[in-house]
Amino acid sequence: xxxxxxxxxxxxxxxxxxxxxxxxxxxxxxxxxxxxxxxxxxxxxxxxxxxxxxxxxxxxxxxxxxxxxxxxxxxxxxxxxxxxxxxxxxxxxxxxxxxxxx
Length: 102
Ligand SMILES: [Zn+2]
Known about the structure:
Blueprint: E1 2-6, H1 10-22, E2 27-30, E3 49-52, H2 58-73, E4 77-78, E5 85-86
Antiparallel strand pairs: 1-3, 2-3, 4-5
This protein binds zinc ion (ZN).
């Protein structure tokens, strides 16, 4: 088992785990319910973690994680057709289906 991603936000951790599983990578989330221990153990140790079961899939998993975290650091974009604000990870406006401007 290899740790490939950790974040204080469980939703992000679950999203990464789901993306990896969709790519055929078997994952396990640890510390999902460890937040209750905050204050007694160092806070980083209570963050939920994504672990990859097979060492042969770690490289692929890390590439997917890098792609996801890169997308999450890019700014939202505004649709030029309907002015809707869309997350950086979306290639099409969720409101009107127009493509993301390049
Ligand atoms: Zn739009």
